[in-house]
Amino acid sequence: MLDVRRLLLLRDLGRLGTIAAVAQARAYTPSAVSQQLSVLEREAGVPLLGRSGRRVALTAAAVTLVRHAEEVLAALERADAALAAAQAGLSGTLRIGAFPSAARTLLPAALVALARDHPGLDLELTELDPVDVPDAVRDRRLDLALVHDYDVVPAEPDPALAAQPLLDETVHLAVPTDGPPDADPDPPDPVAGFREAGWIAGTPGTLCHAVTLHACRAAGYAPRIRHHADDFGTVLALVAAGQGVALVPQLAAGRPPDGVRLVPLALRRRTALTYRRGGADHPAVAAGIAAVRRSTADLGFPVLG
User: Where does the HTH lysR-type domain lie (predicted)?
Assistant: First the structure.
């Protein structure tokens, strides 16, 4: 019988590429990870690991085993959901993750509703960048999370996770109102008109940084980034102060400060609710999804799905 915990280590290795990275993610020593993978290899009866330079590569048999491991883990999630559904009332902890603009706008009303309707449920909210969400949900640090991508920078699907679409937003170009007006009052690509401007972008490595680079490169230039800021309130304050221009999605641009003009773009930001495969029917996760969808609709946004 294959051990599920060792299957998790094999899955992590396929995703992270090195024994050291798996050890760091799981708070093990590298030797402990190697030992457990060796045991799994003996249990499987076929070679699972090979070398590719300094990295450890999965064999074809290991890739097949990881694919089956995802199905096993999803079945365990469904079993956990069935047990939770058999209990009277919701209890335990629901760990929710969200990116800052959603945590500030969509989550407060949802948390109030959950606390009112399910007083036995302990709620935990964590604010984090969408690039960090898959690992947090996969590793059970979160049960439900709001994650976004952009139509021009789509996220790769994760076989361990499932998702429900929630929201599709317009992305705006935020520019100072006292800056030079565009030569064309309705340009086909407003980003192209700010080739010489300083830009305000997210921290390198974040999705917001990546979409700024993509939008400017699509307009034919590399942006001159003057400031890095991950909070859109800070971004809009910097734009109002004449420090540059920035991309701001609709959810974060509700009430821009004086001195900011918002130019709608063709870019779209897409938000989804994500959770572990097999977990959609868990009563706490289902309650969280319903509460977030209601709060989104109450704010006047068209809810997808």
Answer: 2-59
